[in-house]
Design a protein that fits this description.
CATH superfamily: Ribosomal protein L30/L7
Oligomer: single chain
CATH class: Alpha Beta
Helix content: 25-40%
Strand content: 25-35%
Shape: globular
Low-confidence stretches: none
Number of strands: 3
Order of helices and strands: EHEHE
Radius of gyration: 11 Å
Mean pLDDT: 96
């Protein structure tokens, strides 16, 4: 079982590139201060790496 992480959006999507917007949407985030708990899969970690300046990431303890 993969570990879980909590991702929270901290910046607006206004003026961002199409790739950054697609990554935020792919993570399931919609607006500033929106949070989701997701699996720490390689796909999700790659999207987080692309928008790391726009999100806060926390490890969830199981």
């Amino acid at each position: 079982m993969m570990s879980k992480i909590k991702v929270s959006q901290k910046l607006s999507l206004i003026g961002k590139t199409k790739k950054q917007i697609a990554c935020i949407k792919g993570l399931g985030l919609r607006r500033i201060r929106d949070s989701k708990i997701i699996e720490a899969s390689p796909e999700n970690l790659g999207m987080i790496e692309t928008v790391k300046h726009m999100v806060n990431v926390e490890q969830i303890k199981e």
